[in-house]
Sequence to fold (328 residues):
Amino acid sequence: MVGPDTRHLTPVLVGPTGVGKTAVAVSLAALTPITVISADARQVYRGLDIGTAKPDRETRARVPHRGLDLVSPGERYSAGRFARDAGGWIAEIRASGGHEPIVVGGTGLYIRALAEGLFREPPFDQERRVQLRDWSASLEGADLARWAGRLDPRFLGGGRQRAARAIEVALLTGHALSWWQREARESGTLRPWYIHLTVPREVLHRRLGARVDQMLAGGLVAEVQRQLAAGIAPDAAGLDGIGYREVVAMLNGQLSESALRDAILVSTRRYAKRQDTWFRTQLRGPGAGSQEPGIWSLDATERPELLAGRIHERWSSLTPDSRLQVPR
Fold:
């Protein structure tokens, strides 16, 4: 029987790009001392500030951040590496006293790796694996899902690829995929309290349009030119991100200057939609009967100060011994 989870309950503020996560975190910092753990795969790159909407120097002077400016463009930074690094930052923050760590970001795989641990599959018999893939490819989608459900009663659906994966793991390892994932979760660094910020699509689109305009006016093109002049390859990790790749295409003559803004905006909207879908479908809340707090969705059309106040009040009620108490 598994004993009680003694890991600290930690707020994890998630949502699509442009929804207002940073503004809410900064407002929360005005109520109680926090250190932000940035879970953003784009903000890890040094020198890529404008196109990643990285918090400015003034904000970072007021609110400590970890997870920014970790590697140079061109260097790969994985979810596994983030989980290891962030686990160390969180332990360090808690040991130093005075601040509470708050995870803030839009990169779902980073958050999953940190909160749930990483599922490392055992070695598979490659011949059997190929046979299974050929067999699953011959099935209709409904039949594939039925097989996945039989082999893994906790299988929640999600398309052919996810069903085939569940079948493969169960038959090749003798354990259901959900079993392996549960084992991984027990090795996660923290107990997450997910706070999911959402806004209506038309509101998010307006915010994203304003953000793209701000980035272009703030010198996004010059930021890319500086990286290229420093010898960074046009397709290097970091420069292959949204905003940067469109500017690279323009500088290479593959995209007109007049089309740049709309190209970035279209890519950003698609990315935001993928993020929001991921957070709506992939975050794992506590099971039935659990005393853990569930996934809390908040309407981010409210002012950041009001949202921060609600988060602070609820957090104080969830963790009466936490440093995140309302000051007296």
Remarks:
- The longest strand covers residues 191-198.
